[in-house]
Amino acid sequence: MTIEQTQQQIIDEFSMFDDWMDKYNFLIEMGKDCPIIDTQYKTNNYLITGCQSRVWLHASYDGNLISFSADSDAVITKGIVNLLIRVFNGHSPEEILAADTAFLDQIGLKEHLSPTRSNGLVSMVKQMKLYAQVYHLKSTQQTKHE
Amino acid sequence: MEDRKPFEIQYVRSQFPALSQYVYNKPLVYFDNAATTQKPLVVIDRLKLWYELENSNIHRGVHYLSQQGTIAFETARKTVAAFLNAKETHEIIFTKGTTDSINLLASSLGRLLVNEGDSVLVTGMEHHSNFVPWQQLCLEKKANLLVAAITDSGEVDLEDYKSLLEKRPKIVSITHISNVLGTINPIEEMIRLAHEYNIPVVIDGAQSVAHQKIDVQALNCDFFAFSGHKLYAPMGVGVLYGKEKWLNAMPPYQFGGEMVNQVSIKETLFNDLPFKFEAGTPNVGAVLGLESAIHFIEMTGIEQIGLHEEQLLHYALEKLKEIDQIRFIGHPKKQAGVISFLIGNIHPFDAGMIIDKLGIAIRTGHHCAQPVMERYGIPGTMRASFAAYNTFEEIDIFVAAVKKAALMLS
After folding, report:
1. Among all residues of A, which ones are annotated catalytic?
2. Domain encompassing residue B395
3. Contact between chains at B350 and A52 (C-beta distance less than 8 A)
4. B321-364 per-position pLDDT tens digit
5. Do residue B276 and residue B392 come from a single domain?
6. Residues B93 and B114 reside in one and the same domain
7. Quick one: B75 and B179 in the same domain?
8. Chain A within 8 Å of B347 (Cβ-Cβ)?
9. With an 8 Å Cβ cutoff, are A76 and B357 in contact?
């Protein structure tokens, strides 16, 4: 599934909810399914700044695709980060860098989160793209050497 | 006051337009009063009148508006002085707020009294605004910041306080009421103890001034700081009360217009109290709004407000106890209308987001008191804080919302 297809799937899922409560319940459930970061990475180095609760994010790269894992001490935050993981997981750095995140507005996540929370969301996306950027540079450098 | 009305909660509420609004299609329940209070009509109208008709710069002009403005401004100072029972009107300095008042002291009183190797004493329950300015002063002066411990129940450990006083700090600065725990500190005793060593005492009154009668002469504190906006007044105005002898001895804090007597290229003679500490054009509208807020409080009756809030506190504590796994952070013997709590291990932001969606304004986070969070080993709390206009029905709505959040998140 492409990034756009996953985003559309999430938009469809959210459109089924009548009220915010169901949306939050969904995020809480998603939080429980989050691929949990290995404890060795649950350190300040992997902490995302800009969130009111603590969020740790880790990425690994197999030379082709990136996979993410995360954790947060707040379960709704964990649901949000998992939503992003669902979108970006198993994609190449180039795909992740090219993706836009307008779907967050469409599922009404941005407007329903307080500004600081929303900044946290922005920070999460930024951090994921940063990982993609680093892996992209690494792979292009390797290609050059070859 | 002669025209004081009996405490009529519906009348009090009717004076606050903000309270009748709906958020997320639900009637607003405003329990974030320790952060800032809503404003009554008298205050809003006073600001409007100032900007519609009276606006002018004060203390400078000979023209009519300037003279009227100056009279109004200085009358407001008298009102504040009477409200705090200050001995002299010029012991009242208008500032931007509590933070500004304490920064003034850390800078000016700090410069007067604190040198290398000296110390300043605060408690472990201070708001950052009564902590960081002293900490930075101490770092700059190579002095020591002494921090009196707090007990598990959220009270200042008086034995620790007494032993730290023996180190002869140059300044003691303590909060009257904790913005996190609601603890009402025994400041009368703490002031008396510090005065045994002739140490001046600063009281951070940000959380107390709207809830109980303050008499600075009876307290015998050397300084008392508060913000207008927590007292139903506009934002951007605060007060620093200081005993005349200290204010006269202290060097000016900021320099500029209004605070000078005579300026030549070589030197400047500074103005007398209180103008020495009021450089630049003051926030006149907000000062007049503060005066109106004080009139509002006096008409309503500060004792009655305090009593009402105490009843709200006890009712809320009883109702919240019905919730499984409720954890109160601090349970001091003397508590103001501030409750900090957690539900089991639920993160305060998670619960706060759901409670917000139910139309209830509470505060979540560390409340600008990270040392307190550290003391209890928690990331933050949920905090409900009450004002004159809150009702028992609102507490019912709030407790139901907390229950709902707990159900969703556990």
Report:
1. 51
2. 9-30+301-409
3. no
4. 999 999 999 999 999 999 999 999 999 989 998 999 999 999 99
5. no
6. yes
7. yes
8. yes
9. no
3.90.1010.10, 3.20.20.70, 3.40.91.80, 3.40.50.620: CATH of A3-139: 3.90.1010.10
Same domain, B320 and B257: no
Contacts with B159 (C-beta within 8 Å, 6 or more apart), sequence order: none
Contact flag B350-A75 (C-beta cutoff 8 Å): yes
- Measured between beta carbons, the chain B residues lying within 8 angstroms of A25 are 408
Same domain assignment for residues B377 and B272: no
The tens digit of pLDDT for each residue in B16-58 reads 999 999 999 999 999 999 999 999 999 999 999 999 999 999 9
Q: Is the pLDDT of residue A119 over 70?
A: no
B392 has pLDDT over 70: yes
Q: Do A54 and B379 lie within an 8 Å CB cutoff?
A: yes
| Contact (Cβ atoms closer than 8 angstroms) between residue B98 and residue B204 | yes
Residue with tokens 């909810």: A17
Who contacts B283 (Cβ-Cβ below 8 Å, separation ≥6)?
A: B94, B96, B234, B236, B237
Closest CA–CA distance from residue B349 to any residue of chain A (Å): 7
**Which of B26, B343, B353, B357 is the best mutation test for A, with the most CBs of A within 10 A?**
B353
Residue type, A141: Q
Question: How are beta strands B22-23 and B26-27 bridged, if at all?
Answer: antiparallel
How far, in Å, CA of B370 to CA of B378, rounded? Answer: 10
Q: Give the integer Cα–Cα distance in Å for B225 and B304.
A: 23
The reply to whether B213 falls in a domain is yes
Interval B50-103: pLDDT, tens: 999 999 999 877 899 999 999 999 999 999 999 999 999 999 999 999 999 999
B35 touches chain A (CB under 8 A): no
Per cent of chain B over pLDDT 70 is 99
